[in-house]
Amino acid sequence: MSTKIYHAWKVEIKKLNEFIDFVRPQVLENASNIILELMPNVTKEGIDKQKKEHPYYHKENELRLECLFDICREISNSNMKSRRFDVDFSLNIWLRNNYAYVIPIGYYHWFDVPPNTKDFKYFNNTDRPEGLSEEEWDFRREAWDNINCGQGVSAHNSRRLQHTIIDMSGIGDIDFELMMHEAIKDNNNVNKS
Protein backbone atom coordinates (compact mmCIF):
# COMPACT_ATOMS: atom_id res chain seq x y z
CA MET A 1 0.00 0.00 0.00
CA SER A 2 1.32 3.39 -0.94
CA THR A 3 1.20 6.26 1.54
CA LYS A 4 1.44 9.83 0.26
CA ILE A 5 0.98 12.46 2.94
CA TYR A 6 2.84 15.48 1.60
CA HIS A 7 1.48 18.06 4.06
CA ALA A 8 0.95 17.08 7.69
CA TRP A 9 1.79 18.21 11.18
CA LYS A 10 2.12 16.74 14.61
CA VAL A 11 1.06 18.94 17.52
CA GLU A 12 0.52 18.28 21.20
CA ILE A 13 -3.18 17.81 21.89
CA LYS A 14 -3.09 20.56 24.51
CA LYS A 15 -1.82 22.94 21.77
CA LEU A 16 -4.38 21.94 19.11
CA ASN A 17 -6.68 24.93 19.66
CA GLU A 18 -3.67 27.24 19.41
CA PHE A 19 -2.74 25.55 16.11
CA ILE A 20 -6.25 26.03 14.70
CA ASP A 21 -6.44 29.64 15.90
CA PHE A 22 -3.07 30.33 14.27
CA VAL A 23 -3.96 28.73 10.91
CA ARG A 24 -7.60 29.87 10.54
CA PRO A 25 -6.99 33.57 9.74
CA GLN A 26 -4.38 32.62 7.15
CA VAL A 27 -6.77 30.22 5.41
CA LEU A 28 -9.49 32.89 5.41
CA GLU A 29 -7.04 35.42 3.96
CA ASN A 30 -6.02 32.97 1.22
CA ALA A 31 -9.66 32.38 0.30
CA SER A 32 -10.39 36.11 0.38
CA ASN A 33 -7.48 36.75 -1.97
CA ILE A 34 -8.78 34.11 -4.39
CA ILE A 35 -12.20 35.77 -4.48
CA LEU A 36 -10.80 39.31 -4.75
CA GLU A 37 -8.53 38.29 -7.64
CA LEU A 38 -11.51 36.84 -9.50
CA MET A 39 -13.87 39.79 -9.00
CA PRO A 40 -12.70 41.77 -12.05
CA ASN A 41 -13.49 38.74 -14.24
CA VAL A 42 -17.22 38.69 -13.47
CA THR A 43 -19.14 39.44 -16.65
CA LYS A 44 -21.99 41.89 -17.14
CA GLU A 45 -24.29 38.87 -17.56
CA GLY A 46 -23.20 37.58 -14.17
CA ILE A 47 -23.86 40.95 -12.58
CA ASP A 48 -27.27 41.24 -14.25
CA LYS A 49 -28.27 37.79 -13.00
CA GLN A 50 -27.32 38.75 -9.45
CA LYS A 51 -29.35 41.98 -9.69
CA LYS A 52 -32.44 39.82 -10.21
CA GLU A 53 -31.56 37.33 -7.46
CA HIS A 54 -30.33 39.92 -4.94
CA PRO A 55 -32.26 43.17 -5.50
CA TYR A 56 -31.12 44.44 -2.08
CA TYR A 57 -27.51 44.74 -3.30
CA HIS A 58 -26.95 47.98 -5.14
CA LYS A 59 -23.17 48.13 -5.49
CA GLU A 60 -21.54 46.36 -8.39
CA ASN A 61 -18.88 44.79 -6.15
CA GLU A 62 -21.58 43.17 -3.99
CA LEU A 63 -23.15 41.67 -7.11
CA ARG A 64 -19.75 40.47 -8.38
CA LEU A 65 -19.13 38.83 -5.03
CA GLU A 66 -22.49 37.03 -5.07
CA CYS A 67 -21.79 35.78 -8.59
CA LEU A 68 -18.49 34.28 -7.42
CA PHE A 69 -20.17 32.75 -4.36
CA ASP A 70 -22.68 31.03 -6.68
CA ILE A 71 -19.77 29.50 -8.62
CA CYS A 72 -18.00 28.45 -5.40
CA ARG A 73 -21.21 26.81 -4.09
CA GLU A 74 -21.77 24.98 -7.37
CA ILE A 75 -18.23 23.61 -7.34
CA SER A 76 -18.43 22.67 -3.66
CA ASN A 77 -21.72 20.83 -4.21
CA SER A 78 -20.44 18.89 -7.22
CA ASN A 79 -17.71 16.40 -7.92
CA MET A 80 -15.86 18.85 -10.12
CA LYS A 81 -13.00 20.69 -8.52
CA SER A 82 -11.34 23.88 -9.61
CA ARG A 83 -8.29 25.39 -7.97
CA ARG A 84 -9.49 28.71 -9.25
CA PHE A 85 -12.86 28.71 -7.44
CA ASP A 86 -12.63 26.08 -4.71
CA VAL A 87 -12.15 27.85 -1.39
CA ASP A 88 -13.38 24.97 0.83
CA PHE A 89 -10.84 24.13 3.48
CA SER A 90 -10.72 21.89 6.52
CA LEU A 91 -8.26 20.11 8.75
CA ASN A 92 -8.46 16.36 9.23
CA ILE A 93 -7.26 15.51 12.73
CA TRP A 94 -6.44 12.22 14.41
CA LEU A 95 -5.68 11.99 18.14
CA ARG A 96 -3.11 9.43 19.16
CA ASN A 97 -1.42 9.26 22.53
CA ASN A 98 -0.70 12.91 23.47
CA TYR A 99 -0.58 14.25 19.91
CA ALA A 100 -2.87 15.44 17.18
CA TYR A 101 -1.88 14.54 13.62
CA VAL A 102 -3.22 17.11 11.17
CA ILE A 103 -3.65 17.01 7.38
CA PRO A 104 -5.02 20.00 5.46
CA ILE A 105 -7.92 19.22 3.12
CA GLY A 106 -8.69 21.45 0.16
CA TYR A 107 -6.49 23.14 -2.35
CA TYR A 108 -3.49 23.73 -0.18
CA HIS A 109 -2.13 27.24 0.03
CA TRP A 110 1.00 27.53 2.11
CA PHE A 111 0.51 28.96 5.58
CA ASP A 112 2.67 29.28 8.65
CA VAL A 113 2.16 27.05 11.67
CA PRO A 114 2.96 27.78 15.31
CA PRO A 115 6.53 27.14 16.44
CA ASN A 116 5.45 24.21 18.66
CA THR A 117 4.25 22.30 15.56
CA LYS A 118 6.30 19.57 13.94
CA ASP A 119 6.23 18.88 10.21
CA PHE A 120 5.04 15.27 9.98
CA LYS A 121 4.71 14.43 6.30
CA TYR A 122 5.33 10.88 5.18
CA PHE A 123 5.40 9.17 1.81
CA ASN A 124 6.77 5.81 0.75
CA ASN A 125 6.81 6.33 -3.01
CA THR A 126 10.27 7.92 -3.00
CA ASP A 127 13.26 8.51 -0.74
CA ARG A 128 12.87 10.22 2.61
CA PRO A 129 13.63 13.96 2.68
CA GLU A 130 17.18 15.03 3.34
CA GLY A 131 17.88 15.83 6.96
CA LEU A 132 15.53 13.20 8.39
CA SER A 133 17.05 10.16 10.04
CA GLU A 134 15.96 6.70 9.07
CA GLU A 135 14.65 6.22 12.62
CA GLU A 136 12.47 9.36 12.37
CA TRP A 137 11.16 8.28 8.94
CA ASP A 138 10.32 4.81 10.29
CA PHE A 139 8.59 6.41 13.30
CA ARG A 140 6.43 8.49 10.96
CA ARG A 141 5.60 5.43 8.87
CA GLU A 142 4.50 3.52 11.97
CA ALA A 143 2.47 6.47 13.25
CA TRP A 144 0.61 6.95 9.94
CA ASP A 145 0.16 3.18 9.53
CA ASN A 146 -1.45 3.03 12.99
CA ILE A 147 -3.66 6.03 12.21
CA ASN A 148 -4.67 4.80 8.76
CA CYS A 149 -5.12 1.09 9.40
CA GLY A 150 -5.09 0.66 13.15
CA GLN A 151 -8.13 -1.64 13.27
CA GLY A 152 -8.89 -2.18 9.63
CA VAL A 153 -8.83 -0.32 6.35
CA SER A 154 -11.53 2.20 7.29
CA ALA A 155 -10.41 2.75 10.87
CA HIS A 156 -8.90 6.13 10.01
CA ASN A 157 -12.34 7.50 9.08
CA SER A 158 -13.99 6.25 12.25
CA ARG A 159 -11.44 8.06 14.42
CA ARG A 160 -10.98 11.18 12.30
CA LEU A 161 -12.07 14.61 13.48
CA GLN A 162 -12.67 17.29 10.90
CA HIS A 163 -12.37 20.98 11.67
CA THR A 164 -14.00 22.96 8.87
CA ILE A 165 -12.73 26.46 8.22
CA ILE A 166 -14.66 27.19 4.98
CA ASP A 167 -17.44 25.05 3.51
CA MET A 168 -19.32 26.52 0.55
CA SER A 169 -21.53 23.43 0.04
CA GLY A 170 -25.27 23.64 0.57
CA ILE A 171 -26.27 27.25 1.01
CA GLY A 172 -22.67 28.35 1.39
CA ASP A 173 -20.50 29.49 4.27
CA ILE A 174 -22.42 32.38 5.80
CA ASP A 175 -19.56 33.53 8.04
CA PHE A 176 -17.07 33.64 5.16
CA GLU A 177 -19.55 35.35 2.85
CA LEU A 178 -20.40 38.03 5.44
CA MET A 179 -16.71 38.56 6.09
CA MET A 180 -16.15 39.12 2.36
CA HIS A 181 -19.07 41.56 2.11
CA GLU A 182 -17.60 43.53 5.01
CA ALA A 183 -14.18 43.50 3.35
CA ILE A 184 -15.49 45.00 0.11
CA LYS A 185 -17.97 47.39 1.72
CA ASP A 186 -15.40 50.14 2.12
CA ASN A 187 -13.16 48.94 -0.69
CA ASN A 188 -14.24 50.38 -4.00
CA ASN A 189 -10.80 49.73 -5.44
CA VAL A 190 -11.66 46.27 -6.74
CA ASN A 191 -11.00 46.38 -10.47
CA LYS A 192 -13.91 46.24 -12.84
CA SER A 193 -13.94 44.14 -16.01
Keywords:
193 residues; alpha+beta; 42% helix
Nearest-integer average pLDDT? 87
Task: State the distance separating the first and last CA atoms.
Answer: 49 Å
The number of domains is 1
Helical content stands at: 40-55%
Structural class: alpha+beta
Strand order of the largest sheet: 5-2-4-3-7
Globular, elongated, flat, extended or rod-shaped: what is the shape? Answer: elongated
Rg from Cα: 20 Å
Count of alpha and pi helical runs: 6
Question: Describe the biggest sheet?
Answer: 5 strands, antiparallel
Low-confidence stretches: none
H/E element string? EEHHHEEEEHHEH
Number of strands: 7
β-strand percent reads 15-25%
Task: Reconstruct the topology from this structure.
Layout lengths: L3 E2 L3 E4 L3 H23 L5 H10 L6 H17 L12 E8 L2 E7 L12 E2 L2 E2 L10 H16 L5 H4 L2 E6 L7 H12 L8
Antiparallel strand pairs: 1-6, 2-4, 2-5, 3-4, 3-7
Helix pairs in contact: 2-3, 3-6
Q: What's the short story on this structure?
A:
This protein is α+β, with helices and mostly antiparallel strands.
